[in-house]
Design goal:
The complex is a heterodimer of chains A (161) and B (545). By secondary structure, chain A is α/β, with parallel strands linked by helices. Chain A is 27% helix and 15% strand. Chain B folds into four domains: 6-109, Sulfite Reductase Hemoprotein, domain 2, CATH 3.90.480.20; 134-289, Sulfite Reductase Hemoprotein, domain 1 (2-Layer Sandwich), CATH 3.30.413; 311-393, 2-Layer Sandwich (Alpha-Beta Plaits), CATH 3.30.70; 408-544, 2-Layer Sandwich (Sulfite Reductase Hemoprotein, domain 1), CATH 3.30.413. Chain B has helices spanning 6-27, 33-41, 65-78, 101-109, 143-153, 226-240, 251-258, 260-274, 283-290, 311-320, 348-361, 384-393, 424-433, 437-443, 502-519, 527-534, 536-544, and strands at residues 45-47, 52-56, 62-63, 82-85, 91-96, 127-128, 168-171, 185-191, 197-203, 215-222, 321-323, 329-334, 345-347, 366-368, 374-380, 408-409, 448-451, 465-472, 475-482, 494-495. Classes of the chains: A alpha/beta (161), B alpha+beta (545).
């Protein structure tokens, strides 16, 4: 599951992390966008940004007309219990977005399995995650019951070929 | 009954392993209690007044003898020799130790059981009709659809951090034995004019602080698309349900604030986007699951007559036995409301006995009802007497189904951290007041429901008589509500007047019943019917004058 993780690429593309800031957890092979990340309102007002931040109350569908010029969409999780960002990520994938979707903030290891399923492919947790537990978590489930945004076949597809 | 295949078992095993690992991290203090709380809740583990409380899932309330025996084993090994069947057709254990929890989950998983999503802000255990597959008035067995929902909602990645809990019920008859209009989503299997199967979809019903009767969001969704339609409802709720106030976070508040027309428009718009994504299970999967709920191998020679010469047996048959669609068979309800008992409680020995009896007489199948009783749905009439005799010896044959002593009560302040007042002793005192079964039968159907706090786990809003315990300046006080129903004629009970203390509420119920008996048009007019006919005023007069 961690096969696409490219920490090397992260290290090469961005300046060395400040002091003890954790390296972001990234499951993409392309070069990360290191430009400024605009809040949604600023992004919608100025077409030059290639990265945007969605706060929990923001409507992910407002980005749908602009997906072609976006490289990174960062979805903020100020509180881990606020699950709106899961819908935001999946809506963006359903709309065809192929760029990076990053979960940032109060992102806990026990959530990232769900987050991967709804389309997040990078993580910037406020507190660093234990890589051993991350690996364990992401390798946990051999099967899933329902489709989401990660292309995994649900068990009904496996059952009926 | 649905049996796990290797996929189901692998998912349950992985889930158990995951939670064991999470418990380990909590015990090593690697995660905070605040971070652990949603994890344990999604595995059915609450912290109660005295200990951890575990709620084990019984999907749509159906279980086998083997599974019931495991529930008995768990009560014996990890608890105090009893379990408590709940209004969500689950079972709760009140005295669980965290350090034993891993072993307990292993034991459950050996019989295809678990405690997933019996708590937390996620899609909870799916509930259904306890007479499913046996009732003459049903269109089809609703449980295959409940099983499809169970699988679809298990570990749903988008809907595991909802604004609040989410409850779905499925029925397939016009008679509603599952209170679907009081659920976040209620589904009734129907046929459209073309003869196709589909669901009428209710949304936004619920009890709790703000009781609301569900509204119809769609008159007909074809069975083949009900999962993607549910997905659309959940997505609208997940995105727009309120998260600023826990008491306003249920979907009913969103539906009320938007209005059903606007809510419906949003769901339909979402579904138009989701439907083409192929989220619905294929017909082959429906067929696979439906095939696991076959008609029992009926004994076609089974006599359709019953020897009622034993008067005690005759009384039980009259009260606790329902007609079955198959001649020669009957549906038997096992009352978990014996005199002096705690509503819904069963001892390990009782559970073992019920498991044996289900295997011997009832196609190895047991149902839990939302009224906290148990049902054996397929019993040969010729076996009823032997069944009754065995039940009677274990205090499981109280002939009081739907009578005044068949009371729903939440655990209340005896167990629950949320409660403001005790519920169980109130239920016991009322039952004791009407101890004489002859009197109970004369009173007829009367559903009393007791909650120990405003959260309403005892369904007081759906009671013909509802009782709500509140804290009044440090004293327990009980409000009296009348006129609720959780059946197809769903209505919400309304407060009659000022509250009472413990003895006062019991006397008030006594006065209400006495008044009803003097004014009813005849024995067939139920308490609820009389209340609806006369309105609250004369009942108020009878209690408070």
């Amino acid at each position: 599951m961690l096969d696409n993780q490219d920490q090397q690429a992260v290290g090469a593309a961005v300046p060395p992390p400040l002091s003890d800031a954790p390296a972001p957890l990234r499951f993409r092979t392309d070069t990360p966008d290191d430009g400024p990340i605009a809040p949604l309102a600023d992004f919608l007002a100025n077409s030059n940004f290639a990265a945007v931040r969605l706060d929990p109350a923001d409507d992910a569908r407002a980005l749908v007309p602009h997906l072609g010029r976006l490289k990174l969409i960062e979805v903020a999780f100020p509180k881990f219990r606020d699950g709106r960002g899961y819908s935001a990520a999946r809506i963006l994938r359903e709309a065809g977005f192929k760029g990076e979707i990053r979960a940032a903030g109060d992102v806990l290891v026990d959530q990232i399995g769900f987050m991967r399923r709804v389309g997040f492919d990078s993580f910037a947790p406020a507190k660093p995650l234990d890589p051993t537990v991350v690996k364990l978590t992401l390798e946990r489930y051999p099967y899933v019951y329902m489709k989401a945004a990660d292309g995994k076949q649900p068990v009904w597809a496996l059952r009926h070929g | 009954m649905y049996r796990y295949d290797q996929y189901d078992q692998a998912i349950v095993d992985a889930r158990v392993a995951e939670f064991k690992e999470q418990v380990g991290r909590r015990m090593r203090n690697e995660i905070t209690e605040d971070q652990f709380k949603p994890l344990r809740l999604m595995n059915g583990l609450y912290l109660q007044l005295h200990a951890y409380m575990l709620r084990v899932a019984i999907p749509y309330g159906t279980l086998s003898g083997t599974q019931m025996r495991m529930l008995a084993h768990i009560a014996r090994k990890y608890d105090r020799d009893y379990g408590h069947f709940t209004t969500r057709q689950n079972i709760q254990y009140n005295w669980i130790k965290l350090e034993q929890f891993a072993d307990l989950l292993d034991d459950l998983s050996k019989v295809e059981m678990h405690a997933f999503q019996t708590s937390g802000n996620c899609i909870r255990n799916i509930s259904s009709d306890q007479f499913a597959g046996a009732a003459a008035d049903e269109l089809a067995d609703p449980r295959p659809y409940a099983e499809l929902l169970r699988q679809w909602s298990t570990l749903h990645p988008e809907f595991s951090f909802l604004p609040r809990k989410f409850k779905i019920a499925v029925i397939a008859s016009d008679t509603d034995r599952a209170a679907i209009q009081l659920h976040d989503i209620g589904l009734q299997l129907i046929k459209n004019e073309a003869g196709d199967l589909g669901f009428r979809v209710y949304v936004g019903g619920g009890m709790g602080r703000t009781p609301v009767i569900g509204s119809i969001v769609r008159e007909f969704i074809p069975v083949g698309q009900f999962l993607s339609y549910s997905e659309a409802i959940l997505r609208v709720y997940n995105r727009y349900g309120r998260r600023d106030n826990i008491y306003k976070a249920r979907i009913k508040i969103l539906v009320n604030e938007l209005g059903i027309a606007e809510f419906t428009r949003q769901v339909e718009a979402e579904w138009a986007l989701l439907e083409p994504l192929g989220l619905d299970a294929p017909q082959a999967e429906y067929a696979r699951i439906i095939a696991q709920f076959p008609e029992p191998a009926y004994d076609l020679a089974a006599p359709d007559t019953l020897d009622l010469s034993d008067p005690d047996f005759a009384v039980w048959v009259k009260q606790n036995v329902h007609a079955h669609k198959q001649p020669g068979y009957a549906i038997a309800t096992i009352s978990l409301k014996p005199k002096g008992g705690i509503p819904g409680d069963a001892s390990s020995a009782q559970m073992d006995l019920i498991a044996d009896l289900a295997e011997k007489y009832a196609q190895d199948e047991i149902r839990v009802t939302h009224s906290q009783n148990l049902v054996l749905a397929h019993v040969r009439k010729a076996d009823l007497y032997a069944l009754w005799s065995a039940l009677a010896e274990a205090d499981l044959a109280t002939p009081n189904l739907d009578l005044v002593s068949d009371i729903i009560a939440c655990p209340g302040m005896d167990y629950c951290t949320l409660a403001n007042a005790r519920s169980i002793p109130i239920a016991q005192k009322i039952a004791a007041k009407f101890e004489d079964l002859e009197t109970q039968r004369d009173i007829g159907e009367l559903k009393i429901k007791v909650s120990g706090c405003i959260n309403g786990c005892g369904h007081h809003h759906a009671g013909h008589i509802g009782i709500l315990g509140v804290d009044k300046k440090g004293e327990e006080s009980y409000q009296l509500l009348l006129g609720g129903s959780g059946a197809e004629d769903t209505s919400l009970a309304k407060i009659l007047g000022p509250g009472f203390d413990e003895n006062g509420i019991v006397d008030a119920v006594d006065k209400l019943v006495a008044f009803y008996r003097t004014v009813r048009t005849g024995p067939s007019e139920r308490f609820l019917d009389t209340y609806r006919r006369l309105g609250a005023a004369p009942f108020k007069e009878a209690v408070y004058a």
